Amino acid sequence: MSSLQATKSENTRRAILDSAVECFIDLGYKHTTTALIAEHAGVSRGAMMHHFPSRASVLRASIEHIHQQRLSEYRELMSGIGDLDYKVSRELIERSIRMAWQYVNLPSSIAFMEVVVAARTVPELREVLQPLVEEYESNFLELVRVVFPHWDSNELMETANDLVHFPLTGMMSSQLRHFSPERIDNILRALADSIEMVYRHAGYCT
Q1: What is the pLDDT, as a whole number, of residue 200?
Q2: Where are the alpha helices (DSSP H) in the chain?
Q3: What does residue 90 show for φ and ψ, rounded to 5 degrees?
Q4: CA distances from 5 to 8, 41, 186 (A)
Q5: 88 CB neighbour count, 10 Å cutoff
Q6: Which 3 state secondary structure label does DSSP give 202?
Q7: What pLDDT, on the 0 to 100 scale, is given for residue 173?
Q8: pTM, whole model, 2 decimals?
Q9: 101 CB contacts (<8 Å, ≥6 apart)?
Q10: pLDDT at 84 over 60
Q11: Mind listing the pLDDT tens digit for each residue in 158-185?
Q12: Is 177 helix (H, G, I), strand (E, B) or coil?
């Protein structure tokens, strides 16, 4: 295969995966079919089958694609936040939490949440998703260690990450409840207070 053909093939594959993510967001996992993904990507059914011969194969690749997007987006958002030249202050903690709130509202995170919710009642999806989630979480924690080099305790780092992650993803997924900007601001400040306490207890916060 020539380099031009390889580039075209990779672009087609990327278009299919991007379209799968968009379909998860717009239609939900249940209503996302390979035919709809191909139509949304603007590729033929044959091209779709060439890259992904089954719904399971495009699903697995889509979740891996989402994970890579999320890792890349987190790295970009948090760039410089945990630089060792910075002192761990209340301001820095709150800034990182507000960026984390941006992160969980990105399309990739919304698509991932859609798949996670669907997996609760779809055993074959849960079977595909579980090992990929475990791999993602391991990679994510490694990235957190790089982004926040102040932490020299894995347990404390995981605790701080969980204290931020679970409330924010819960807020993001509570679409039937109204969270005013003021209410969100209050929650983010309260989370910053909690993380500051963890940092201070560990002797990291100034």
Answers
A1: 81
A2: 3-27, 34-41, 45-51, 55-77, 90-104, 107-119, 123-147, 154-173, 181-202
A3: -60, -40
A4: 5, 18, 53
A5: 22
A6: helix
A7: 83
A8: 0.84
A9: 168, 171, 184, 188
A10: no
A11: 888 889 999 999 888 886 567 788 989 9
A12: coil
